[in-house]
Amino acid sequence: MNTRTIKDLAPAEVRGKRALVRVDFNVPFDDAGGVGDDTRIRAAVPTIQALLKAGARVVLFSHLGRPKGKPDPKYTLAPVAPVLAALLGGKVPVKFVPHVVGAEAEAATKALKEGEVCLLENTRFEAGEEKNDEALAKGFAKLGDLFVNDAFGAAHRAHASTEGVTKHLRPAVAGLLMEKELDYLGGALEKPKRPFIAILGGSKISGKIDVIEALLPKVDGILIGGAMACTFYEAMGFETGESLVESDRVEMAADLIERAAFRLTLPHDAMVAPSIAEASEAHAVKRDAIPEDEAMLDIGPESAISYARAIASAKTIIWNGPMGVFETKPFDAGTMAVAKAMAAATAAGATTIIGGGDSAAAVEGAGLADKMSHVSTGGGASLEFLEGKVLPGVAALDQR
Fold first, then answer.
1. Active site residue 40
2. Which of these is catalytic: 357, 378, 379, 393?
3. If 112 and its partner were Cys, which of 16, 116, 165, 263 is the partner (CB 3.0–4.6 Å)?
4. One of 69, 315, 380, 389 is an active-site residue; which one?
5. Are 165 and 207 within one domain?
6. Preceding amide of 267 cis, omega within 30
7. Pick from 142, 177, 212: which residue ends a domain?
8. Which residue in 4, 95, 204, 389 is the catalytic one?
9. 99 is in which domain, residue-wise?
10. Catalytic annotation present for 357
């Protein structure tokens, strides 16, 4: 990785300085209004602790949800501050600032003492954030003496808080989480231990077509799961019943099958049912025997065993997208089989990378996140990285 990180900064560049850190605290809330999942907050802690140890005054800012460019109490970051304070061991108070830019926010950052932390309000409360407005970017730049981007999950967006601010504030470097994300994903693509396989799932082939195209020349195999398999089935002339099929992508799927040859593996069987609500009627069928009045809602048991075997034989595995409707039993079986196989592969020395999104949620829910080499915090960003696209929030940072 050629991007400069906080490790590359001289002590004088950090001690006593305001480190403006773009974090990804876009977390879900529970029914009581508290943080429902602190995964992304925990992921930012190493960078915050490293900056505190170096004597920085840490200023955090993040987006949350889609408040449409104006303040909305439903999307305030206020509940995050006490959670972060607890994760920092309760020794470092986290001051919440109910502003994200302007005189009050500037005053709050300047009032911070060495080793203190403040969390600013939601960046998307400002209409110019998603438009990458230059005036707003300049306003953000006034809140720090150096910029640290640790929000990999937002790095694929050229927003005022991720890309625009770097035009007005230097040094601009990556945090430890950003570094870890780029090292794992970049290492998998550039120097993978082989065999190298990718597992791609989810509902639509259209959302994964670019990543399939980008990975085909680099991997030894791609395992397909989820409803997107049905578009491939349609291309093979199989009955797909009530399954989700992208009819406008069938020709594309046929072309991929032809070009990929043995490197593309589709499920041998499927778990089907009349609907998700009628899960009690779920049963396994061969892939060429899907009933016309039922839908494929998970890969079948034979496929789960076969995929687990393929995972066990690999040295580098990237997974993005569930194998079925994993939120509803028994359609979680395929996704859980893959998660367990990847955990076992990690223990056997393989490099296992979960590409964020639903896959990350699945391994977290299964209690297997710490059994993987790396669980990405950014589904969209990891997909775009795997597609070979430049991430604006990374490209804007200082290079070595």
1. yes
2. 357
3. 116
4. 380
5. no
6. no
7. 177
8. 204
9. 6-177
10. yes
